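Hey team,

Sharing the Tethering complex subunit run so nobody has to redo it. Sequence (1056 residues) first:
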Amino acid sequence: MSLLDDYAEYQSTSVHRFNDAAQGSSGSFTGIANGVSAVASDADGFITTTLDAEDAPIFSLDTVQFQVPNKIISLSVSNDILVLVIEGAKVLRIKLQEAHNIVEADIPLSPSSLRACSAFLDPTGRHLLLSTPQGENFYYYEGWDSAKPLSKFKSMEITAVAWNNKAWSAVGLPASSTTRTILFGTHDGKIYETELRPGNGDAKAKRCDLPVKCVAELPVRERVTGIAMEPFPARRKQHLVLIATGTRLYQVIGAAADLESRSSDRVAVFESMLREGLVAPNFQEIPGMPGPGALAIYHCEARVNGKSAAVATDFAWLTSMGVFFGKLSFDAQEANDSVVGNASLLPYPAPASTDGAVEQPSSLALTEFHILLQYSDRVCALNMLNSKLAFEQSHSGHGEQLEGLLVDESKRTCWLFSAGNIYELVVTDEDRDVWEIYLQRRQFDSALERCYNDAQRDVVLRAQAEHYFSAGDFVRSAECFALTSVSFEEAVLRFIALKDNRVLKSYIVSKLRTLRRQDRIQVALLVTWLVEIYLSMLGAVDARIASLAVSDSGEASDAGSGSPLGKQASGVLANGSGRAPSPLEVAGELEKTELRTELYSLVEEFKSYVNPGTVYQLAESHGNRGFWLHYASLRGDYERVVEYWMEKEDYVRAIEVLGHYGTPEAFYRYSPLLMSAEPEALVEILMRQPDLTPNKLIPALMRNEEGSLGGRPNQAIRYLRFCIQKQMCRDPVVYNYYLMLLIRESRDDDESELMSFLTTYGKDMLYDPDYALRMCKRYGRIQSCVHLYSLLKLYEDAVDLALKQGDIELAQIHAERPQDDDKLCKKLWLNIAQHVIKSSEPASVVMELVRRSNRLGVEDILPFFPDFTCVDDFKDDICVALEDYEMQIQELRGEMDEATRTAETMQRDMTSLKNRFAVLNAEETCQICALPLWTRQFYVFPCQHSFHGDCLTRRVVGACNRVQRRRIHELQSQNVEIAKMRRQLRLNPLLARAAGGAAAARESDEQLEQQLRRAKQQLDALVAGECVLCGEAMIKSVAEPFIEIGDQGEEGSWAI
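Structure output:
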């Protein structure tokens, strides 16, 4: 059978389980029944926490089905690549994902001379270093046909290699083909530095000259059995070099040079660090005979500077007395410090098949929790957590010895080999029992991280809860019990017995977090109970703080009673203004703040689950008004908050709440009382509310009608002014009320604001002028009354009221208001003049009034003067008036003469029209039809255009409106009827005589002739009123097209 036919699928499955075991489980908590071995399930109510019989063991040794061509000398594996060194000086390189593809290469040695060889494969699986006990060393790079001898590595038996961690990572392989700087140890205790790279020569070159330099030598000349080079994760240049021998484990810490550069380009990277570190070395020595000395390092993935990297976490070293293992902790260590922590020496397990003699293993490997030991006839695994043997399998029945144990760190697979076979040590769910070990050691957090299912997690949490309960840490115990399957009743009764609300609160809070949102009833019950507990705790804290304050005040009073100074101090302490709070009071306040914060967060998170009425009752029963207000605000029940502050007569806070959260209905409801108490603050808030209807606030504004008393401005006027001017309110009710307030608040000597309002908003009649006039009369606002009279077009009343108050100027202003009625204006000015004359004003004042009016003359005011008034004061005005009259008479006389001449001229023109004629040629044609004009009745216009009567009629009928068209048809019909009647009268003289004789016939004919003449005159007026080619009809036809639609021939003649 070919190599690893089923390996790809098998390896993928095993690695997947290995990684899942490392990550652990993170499921949600569910309830479990009492006991460790059984928990509730969906099927029958119980599931077991132990492994089923069908579950695979953690470790199993499987033989790889591969027929090795020859005896295996050495094996190495890395990055899913397996390398075999077999007898016959051959190297087999196998990609395990492509097991059928085996690459064979030669080692330039005699086939029979190669009996022992060490193979070192770098973490990328590209570079292979081979070394024989005779000191012959070879380098092989992937793709080469044969390995190349290393000429500079003569007489060196390489026993251990430390690969550069920067040349590989757990995420991906680098693009570079170099290993960068590496270290290796030899059989004589020397440490060398080199760099493997295939670029020094072509693939067909026989040798490979790689740089190599001895950088250190161990103080005690021993064989180097293991070496590791690990960088500090957080420190770029700081490195740890572990060097293992049969008796010692050296730690060298220091700063290395730049590992990115090549060895040939600069001095050795680790030379200075290693030479200085080995002068006074830091080492762990195991006395006695040298042991195997193998060294193993375990790496795990970690985030370093935001990138994923492999970090060394554990080490193990084979000594003569056992396995020395521990943790590697990288921190701020410097030279001669140690990175080893929690180290211990674990004796080798005695094989079950012997008499107790302990054999030393040949090699070892590390997994996350186990140390794998390879003996010649068996393989075993030791648990690093409890130092117990976890696995042992004998190999003695196969008739061959195991030669080596290796681990592929990139794929987490373990391999063993003998001379004729390859074995895989399959690791399945390595951490399945780790949680129990952590639990026994009471490392509960670590145990929880390693639990595979809810049943295991429940066991750990129960043990943790009982542990905390026994230790008196009841709060943490309650938190753990909440996550277990212990029944709610049992746990609650247990914590109630402690009579400590803190413990009960912690349990219920933790239990609440385990419920689903769908469990509304359970959530509501727990939240309500928590509210009760929190309120009780807050009440207890308040009581404790109050008792401390009273106690401290009493002590201060007693201390100060012995002296006058003490009495004065006690008085200060008694009023609470001079006493500093005690530490216990400060602690109580902090506890109170913390409890209040937790309570507020609880009700905010679960406000939709609890019954508001229940919460309000709880708050009231405990007298906690602060929480009551907070809960009302949280639920948006702001009317309760407003009512509360109004009951407390804290109207400012009530207004603040309304301003932030109030609805229009709330404003309408509470504004009356708030307007009486805090009008200014309320109006400030009202002016910020755009959704209010001002007329609904009038009842509240009426509470402030006396606001101007005491020098305070009327806030109702202020708000209504804002509504009218800023919000552009157009409600007549608002305008009327605002007007009433302005009338009432105005002074007799200052009506400016009132007049400004009346003038600005009177044009659109947004207020009721009749109502305004009544109010102005009631409060004696004369100027406003006069304006309103004028607004109502009661100009005589306006002028009379102004004159009655003696305000001549105001009367003159309103006398000019009726601008379209000169007669009324003159009458108003006469009233003003009469009032002035009756007031015994000088004649000069009266005449000045006459001149200002531009409507009155001296003759208009003379009747108002007394009979014996001396005219000397206005004699000049009288003379001027007489001269004006004389000029007017002359102008009228000239106009009369001009009118007489115009009439005579028109008479002459009318006479001449009767004799007007036009001269026509015999060839004259109609302007419409272009036919000879003389063939039938025609019209001739002064413009010399002539038309047939019927052609002109059709043209006019087509252009006139519907009424004119109907009238023309009526007149035509009437002419036809009259002509027919006259013809019948002339053709039937007997009928005419029978009807009344010849005189009657003539009279009838004359009447018909007169009717016909009138009809023709009317028809001529409609048809021949103007020329259709140069009159108004032609002007109106400018918009009509020249060519009628559908006249194709005419349209073609106009084409360009």
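Confidence is low (pLDDT under 50) at residues 1-54, 170-175, 559-577.

Ping me if you want the raw files.
A.
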